[in-house]
UniProtKB/TrEMBL annotation:
It comes from the Bacteria. Keywords: NAD, Oxidoreductase. Residues 12-211 form the Ketoreductase domain. Its EC number is 1.1.1.47. This is Glucose 1-dehydrogenase. The lineage of its organism: Bacteria, Bacillati, Actinomycetota, Actinomycetes, Kitasatosporales.
């Protein structure tokens, strides 16, 4: 691809769940810009197609596959289809996630709790399982980056306990799976973003300008992280430069207090 400073992923296939928006889209475009064949997955076809079009417009190669990460059949088919199309699965980024269940624990509806666990925890487990099974069976193995959060594994804040608990599980899955499978040639790590430039970090009714003012006051860095900044951390962990980085959880939160 012209105008690229590095092309660390030429000839490799990268799968990004939740690749139709936000951090996942930035990750997908960053991999495509560095030569990877990218598969973006999620539930909404239109958003995925937009990411594919953006990658193509920048000279990259991407494919959209509809899949719900809470369904084992979808996730297994996603990995199968990726390999059928591109020959291998070298990099996977388990980024699909949701925010629900704000409020003190006593007021969190069971339905919100269950949905959080289904998407943020079971979704990552099912994806890890399918990806590892593929990667350990192919020459060269593979590498996986899970998208966790600063909230839960690293910090806690009032009213965000349910989401934080789901993300603490993602970080625990990352560390455990990394130890289980490094000897199989599968290297697993996580990134833990703080408030980032997507709709997820907006409070109810808050505009991006309101959020910027809140960040100026609350965040030591004074702003949210851009999705590109999070993407570059993911690419580092997936790159050969991180070959001895196993089971780490890289916090990207501008020193955020929450
Ligand atoms: N933004 C932040 O401040 C922040 C901070 C810390 C951590 N994170 C984490 O970063 C990740 C990306 O978040 P974001 O801010 O980029 O939000 P986002 O734009 O809402 O992205 C989430 C993506 O996940 C997909 N998704 C949701 N449920 C799914 C399911 N069941 N199956 C497949 N895909 C599903 C969504 O697509 P569909 O709805 O079309 O399926 C969407 O593309 C999440 O794991 C989030 O928890 C974000």
């Amino acid at each position: 691809m012209s105008g690229t400073r590095f092309a660390r992923f030429t000839g490799r296939t990268a799968l990004v769940t939740g690749g139709g928006s936000g951090i996942g889209r930035a990750v997908a475009l960053a991999f495509a810009a560095e030569g990877a064949r990218v598969v973006v997955a999620g539930r909404g076809r239109t958003a995925l197609d937009e990411t594919v079009a953006l990658a193509a417009a920048a000279g990259g190669e991407a494919l959209a596959l509809v899949a719900d990460v809470t369904r084992a059949g979808d996730v297994d088919a996603l990995v199968r289809e990726t390999v059928a199309r591109f020959g291998s699965l070298d990099v996977a980024v388990n980024n699909a996630g949701i925010f629900r269940g704000a409020g003190p624990v006593a007021d969190v509806p069971e339905e919100d709790w269950q949905t959080l666990l289904d998407v943020n925890v079971t979704g990552v487990f099912l994806a890890l399982r399918a990806e590892i099974r593929q990667m350990r069976s192919q020459p060269g193995g593979g590498t996986i980056v899970n998208v966790s959060s600063n909230l839960g594994p690293h910090k806690q804040a009032r009213g965000l306990t349910a989401y934080g608990a789901s993300k603490a599980a993602v970080s625990a899955l990352t560390r455990g799976a990394a130890l289980d499978h490094i000897a199989d040639g599968v290297r697993i790590n996580a990134v833990s973003p703080g408030p980032s430039d997507t709709a997820m970090s907006l409070r109810p009714g808050e505009s991006p300008a309101d959020r910027a003012a809140r960040m100026k006051e609350l965040s030591p860095l004074g702003r949210v992280s851009s999705t590109e900044e999070v993407a570059q951390a993911v690419l580092y962990l997936a790159s050969d430069a991180a070959a001895s980085v196993v089971g780490t959880d890289l916090v990207i939160d501008g020193g955020a207090v929450l």
